[in-house]
Design a protein that fits this description.
12 helices, Chloramphenicol Acetyltransferase, 16 strands, 6-stranded mixed β-sheet, 20% strand, globular
């Protein structure tokens, strides 16, 4: 998997495939001696060459990480687009969706056999800028501004001002960083957006791009988007469109559809009770704090299968449980133990559920707004810790089954539309939210000319709202040992992280 200079094969075989016959060694000892000396000299030269390449590789891989950023530019749509103001859906406008989310997409060098010595002619930033401009003609709302109307609702002001685009270069090879597949999450932060997200008037940019090129010719694409504009499925649809246009297609295979009015709720006098309103949340001795740690734990496929079989036998459920259901329960309990939450306090598990396939009024193909609702389970920490894991899994399963029913979806949207003062208590540590990135398509069909990405992951954030968020990720495409496995990204106070890591490691024991 490593792509260093030492991977260049040295043709030593030519020094050994023509041994001097024994007869000649006996009859003509002097020439034979001379030939052996030449062979030894050649071998020594070859070994020196290999050592030189190895030292060069070590120098590249051990160099202090350095990034050089260019000036920010704005990528505008390739053709004129409408100037208008567009409304967002009720789900888009939900307060919990008003946050900036970033993802990193890692692309290997096309010259990975000798990536430290050959610079590819293709410039990823140039290719992506041109394709992005073409895509924005179809997705022109993303080239506008996110503004808050007098009624408090968010809207998109379509101005065609463009998407902020930052280009950077890094003095390291991607292989020296394990293609961001190692556990050093702090390294990942360097490749995030790190740009002002608003203009002088305070209006927000819906979308931001950053391309970081490495000395190996590979690159990382950072994509930042406000979740209120589109969810993970919508982002994936947009990136596939950019990739298609980069490959030479004249238009995206899926045309974008706005139509946010299709998912509008109505004010109700009897909204759904939100467990985030709980006044009895558990507390942790590690909170408040400003010292956070991020971890990406690997869970092997054999471990997942073993737990599934055990829970199936324990429950008598012949259909079994999904990986998402099992890991959500396990993560919830592991976090509660690591945070040492007060036993008699309450804790809530929130799972993000995609409802597009379950709507009575189907959305058109190409709709890229939010189509998610939250499913909740509220119990005491004592129940979470002391009840069998299978019972916790069953609670989560039932909450998800309830969330995809049309009545729940409609009531959820009505509750979002109804003015209220819900306190989303992320600060206590009692809330765990789990999202699943594995089926968003971020590792498939997003090829700008460098093949599909070998890795994708979120950018760590030290905000309190991120502390309760855990993401289940697909493994890197370069690690064959992780076939069928998953990665779990999480954030916790640094004092609690060792305990959490111990809990997660126990899964693979």
């Amino acid at each position: 998997m490593n792509e260093t200079c030492s991977s260049v094969p040295v043709p030593r075989l030519h020094l050994e495939v023509e041994p001097v016959p024994t007869l000649h060694l006996e009859v003509e000892p002097v020439p034979t001696l001379h030939l052996e000396v030449e062979q030894l000299a050649n071998i020594e030269k070859a070994d020196n060459f290999v050592r030189t390449l190895s030292l060069m590789s070590m120098a590249y891989n051990n160099a202090t990480l350095s990034l050089e950023n260019k000036e920010v530019i704005f990528i505008k749509p390739s053709k004129p687009t409408p100037t208008t103001i567009l409304s967002l859906s009720t789900i888009d406008n939900a307060p919990e969706n008003y946050f900036f989310t970033e993802s990193l997409h890692v692309y290997r060098s096309p010259n990975h056999i000798s990536q430290n010595t050959i610079t590819p002619k293709l410039e990823p930033a140039k290719v992506i800028k041109e394709a992005l401009s073409k895509a924005l003609f179809y997705y022109y709302p993303l080239a506008g501004k996110l503004v808050r109307h007098a009624d408090g609702k968010l809207r998109i002001k379509c101005t065609s001002e463009g998407v902020p685009f930052l280009e950077a270069t890094c003095n390291r090879s991607l292989s020296s960083l394990d293609y961001l597949d190692a556990n050093d999450i702090e390294i990942v932060k360097h490749f995030g957006i790190n740009l002002p997200l608003q203009d002088e008037s305070g209006n927000r940019y819906p979308l931001v791009f950053k391309v970081t090129k490495f000395i190996c010719g590979g690159f990382i694409l950072a994509v930042g988007v406000y979740h209120c504009v589109c969810d993970g499925t919508g982002v994936s649809q947009f990136l596939r469109a950019v990739a298609e246009l980069a490959s030479g297609k004249t238009e995206p295979s899926v045309k974008p559809v706005w139509e946010r009015e299709r998912l509008m709720g109505t004010i109700t006098t009897n909204p759904l009770q939100n467990p985030m309103d709980s006044a009895h949340f558990a507390v942790s001795p590690f909170i408040p704090t400003t010292d956070f740690s991020h971890e990406c734990s690997k869970v092997h496929s054999e471990s997942i299968t073993r737990v599934k079989m055990s829970l199936m036998k324990e429950s008598g459920n012949k259909k079994g449980f999904t990986t998402f259901e099992i890991l959500s329960a396990y993560i919830w309990r592991a976090r509660a133990r690591a945070l040492k939450l007060s036993y008699d306090g309450e804790t809530v598990m929130t799972t993000v559920v995609g409802v597009r396939p379950h709507l009575l009024d189907p959305l058109p193909n190409g709709y890229y707004g939010n189509t998610i609702v939250d499913a909740h389970v509220l119990i005491t920490v004592r129940e979470l810790i002391e009840r069998p894991l299978v019972e916790v899994v069953e609670l989560i399963r039932e909450s998800i089954k309830g969330a995809i029913k049309n009545d729940y979806i409609r009531h959820s949207m009505d509750a979002m539309e109804t003015p209220k003062a819900v306190k989303y208590n992320w600060e206590s540590g009692a809330t765990t939210m789990v999202t699943d990135w594995r089926h968003l398509g971020l590792l498939k069909k997003v090829d700008f000319g460098w093949n599909e990405p070998v890795n994708t992951m979120p950018v760590p954030s030290d905000e309190y709202a991120s502390m309760g968020l855990c993401s289940i990720l697909a493994p890197s495409n370069l690690d064959s040992s992780m076939s069928g496995a998953v990665r779990v990204y999480s954030c916790l106070p640094s004092a609690a992280m060792p305990n959490f890591k111990e809990e997660m490691n126990a899964l693979n024991a």
